[in-house]
Amino acid sequence: MHIRLHGISKRFGQVQAVDRVDFEARPGTVTALLGENGAGKSTLMKLLFGLHRPDAGYIELDGQTQLVDSPRTAIRFGIGMVFQQFSLIGSLTVRENLALVLPQGAWWIGRGARRLAAIDRHLAAVLPEIDPNARVADLSVGQVQSVELAKVLLLRARCVILDEPSAVLSPTEAQQLWRSIRQLAERGLSVVLITHKLADVRACADRVSVMRAGRLVGDVPAGDLDEAAVVRLMVGHAPDKVRTPLPRDPAARVRLWVKAIRAGSLNELSLQVHAGEIVGVAGVSGSGQTELAQALGGVLPVQAGEVILDGERLRAPRYSSPTSAKLAYIPEQPLLNAVAPDLSLSVNLALKRVAGLSFVPDRRQLERHASALIARFDVRPPDPRALAGWLSGGNLQKLVAARELSESPAVVVACYPTMGLDITAAAQVYESLFGLAREGSAVLWISEDLDDLMTHAHRIAVMLDGRVVRVLDAAETTLAELGSWMTGSGVRPCAKSA
Amino acid sequence: MDDGLGSAALREIGLSAAAFIALSALFFGLIGREPIAMLGAIAEASVGSGYALGESVLRATPILLCALATLTPARVGQMSVGAEGQLYFGALTGTGVVLAFPQAPSVVLMPALLAAGAAGGALWALLPALLRVAARVNETISTLLLNYVAALLVTWLVYGPWKNPHSQGWPATIDFPDAARLPTLWDSRVHAGLLLALALAVLLHGLFTRTRWGLVLDILRSNPRAGQQAGLSLARQIVLTMLIGGALAGLAGIAETSAVQGRLQADLSNGAGLSGFLVAWLARGNVLRAIALALLVGALLAAGDGLQMSAGVPSSATLVVQGLLFVAVLGVGGWRARAMASRRTGAVDV
Known about the structure:
The complex is a heterodimer.
Chain A: E1 3-12, E2 15-25, E3 30-34, H1 41-48, E4 56-61, E5 64-66, H2 71-77, E6 79-82, H3 94-101, H4 116-126, H5 141-154, E7 159-163, H6 171-186, E8 190-195, H7 198-204, E9 207-212, E10 215-221, H8 227-235, E11 254-263, E12 266-274, E13 278-282, H9 289-297, E14 304-309, E15 312-315, E16 327-330, H10 334-337, H11 345-349, H12 363-377, H13 393-405, E17 411-415, H14 423-438, E18 442-446, H15 450-456, E19 459-464, E20 467-473, H16 479-487
Parallel strand pairs in A: 3-8, 3-9, 6-7, 7-8, 13-18, 13-19, 16-17, 17-18
Antiparallel strand pairs in A: 1-2, 1-4, 4-5, 9-10, 11-12, 11-14, 14-15, 19-20
Helix pairs in contact in A: 3-4, 3-5, 12-13, 13-14
Chain B: H1 7-30, H2 35-47, H3 50-74, H4 83-100, H5 106-135, H6 139-159, H7 192-210, H8 212-222, H9 224-229, H10 234-261, H11 272-283, H12 287-310, H13 316-348
């Protein structure tokens, strides 16, 4: 389907979310809609999908001006949208979930109804690898997303909009996603891919439309993409440079010493991080990286071995120490693990110090302290009384970084600290994280972005099956070498960790 | 939790009152009574005279204490429905002290029986708290079931070992000696328990909203994981809040027994535990709102007793009216929460 948007505008209160945007998506092409968080790309597509009504402008579908006033209308026109928040029901099977959306599916349709055969045929065609009887709750994130996509296709969509589909996927899952997106385009569908990742653009887009602050600022073919120029368009200025790490001092003392710990799936894992050093942790997802972070953070009890911080015991079996002021811990998924969503930013920023507050805490003083941190880490909204639950994912990450990184910790453990962040926000978090290494902190940083690891880390510890199988010098290693250690194909028996 | 009582809250109260009046007028119309006259009669029977006012406040006292008993564990996310059982057990242990030392002077007996009542309620809450912390037993179920155990224990005692031998079949303990009777106020049946309840409510409000402890509870309720990450102990706070809650309900029980009935008897709670739970629920964790709602519910229930006698309306009609009150408050509260949520997503969703 050939889609053209003409002069679309939309305002929410004080915010001009979308400002006179012209946009085009052609059949058989993948159009990447690129922009930072809050650039208006999701809003623009929600306008196309009928979730919002534009204040000005009109929508042209296959050459005819149409009024899309609700998602129902959009679906009738053949527009489908896959959202960041999944809309499947976990306790139902894949087949039942699809049955729910069939417009002609009557409410009394039962589990054994014969018309489910049509759904089975559809699933066999687009998702042969997924069992229609599997419960959605048992599927991986990547699989859930492909079921979402299958659901949209079942409604005979001729245009598919995907809202930041790769944000929650592991690298392998992302590659599968890119393949299926290409297949959609080859079948003649027009695909719109909302993203802030250049990797998505590189992997599967034909055209790139760049949005910034509600306006369309660029529209170029993806083939001859000048990535630096696109980033400038997205961000509005040259991207913030994260300073290159200082050279590693081989004589620096050990600040974090992980001694043969067992915890969860961790199996006699050992690792050392020196003062001023950034050690990246790489691995295929599920190799035990998050458990390593949780064990160091004190969430996951250590069953054997011990962890030494600056010569003092931090973790050991049956040893529960209070949180150490010398340890900064940035867990994955901050909303779940690191913030109290119903409470104000000022309380969240004081979370680690609560036990030390006076009996009647001085809220003004907390707010002053919070305001300073909020300004330094550019958290939005910049209001210490705002509730943490109102914040977007990127601002939540910045909030946690502000709390954990502000008091010159000896050791930093950061688990996917930039997941879901756009370029500007990620650069800010990286700068504060790695800036600590310049001041002598030891930084242990878990990431799935191998490019970033090779750029910013001194050494990269590769994890496999709950142990560190190899520690590589980031300056000398290659993607191929990393990959072979991650998958285990480069492992010699009895590989010894550092 | 929303701890303010600002203009938005006042507007909500006004809307709830309007919805409540409309609903109950409709109800009276349906049962063939003149709505305006009936509402007037309710007002008359609840606050129309000094006596009526006294009866209303009397009913509100244990309801307020039981609301606080529910609300305190709720501040750390625990849904206790055990106020009823804690009330019974507090009455039981407090009475035990009176039966053991019937001759003790008032200065000794009065503090001792109040302390024993509070301790009994706390003890009754300790078991579900420990089960929750040690074995992750759902506190709602365990407190609910213990309600029956406590009420039946009291029934057994007053029919059996503690029965007054001179009561001619009436199942109750001996009458409390004067030294064990909580003083009444203003020449009415209202007793010192009211002042105790109000003082405790104000104290708790201050603790919840102003102190570090209140902040700790807020954090652990909002995200137990993040709280424990920050070195706070969820288990300790669960046990502590459940104990405090139990003590408050236990006080309600012994105060009723000592001041109103003057002896331990089987049906002493009069539904205060359940009404208290509903009040705490409607107040959404806010102590000040709980005070207002407890007084309102107490007035309605007292009016029910009055109406039954004066207007010939079955007292169950006031139970319906009480239900309508809950529907009105919950409905308006839910509707406003939704309106606020949608306004917020509209603003942030860019």
